[in-house]
# Entry
Amino acid sequence: MNILAIGAHPDDIEYGCAGTLARYASQGHKVFVATATNGNIGSAHHTMEEIAAIRKAEAKASAALIGAEYICLDYDDEMFFEDRAARLKFIDLVRYCRADVILTHNPEDYNPDHELTSKIINDIAVMIPIAHLKTPNPPYEVIPKIFYFETAHGLRFIPTDYVDITDFMDVKLKMLGTHRSQIQWMSDNFQENDAGGDKFFENASIIARFRGMQSGVKYAEGFIRALDAFRVTTTRVLP
# Structure
């Protein structure tokens, strides 16, 4: 299968589903990692152009750890809005990846970029096979299955499905660790985070351990499946 994980910002995917992506990759599936924005406001110490380049390089390094391809749609961080061009850009992304499964943000989360990324993916999923919607990459006759990954701190999130990531927790943390710029950002903007980055990794570990406790393993990632017409299957597609 072809798997596309799309988040709003670099490092969103690592928190939400890096262990699952690592497990997919280990099983021979083709994995794509994409972000809607380039994260260009994610620093108080670099220009917007500098931090965008840094964050894209960090995301590419993270994806490379599992042999995944990283793609950035290059919208401005926190100034990402929906229009016809955005829909077509998302359609083209999915067509390029020929995605069978898409992992993305929960429709309700704390950040508007998260919610809009989820909304557009949901809106365009049924449009992938439509020939009259012209994009550089051609249509293919699949409507991808969609799963939502964890919200920030797991708030209002009750999984329908779990993936055992016990054997891939170290990979998840290594992927998170490539996002060095965000350790500084979290320290600058959120008092609960320290300059050394301990909270950056601890929060991800706590959520994974909690979901593991719920599902009877050491570490897990939780997902909510999108139960919409043409996206429901009797076959398990999560790894």
Remarks:
- The first strand starts at residue 2 and ends at 7.
- The longest helix spans residues 198-215.
- The chain has seven helices and seven strands.
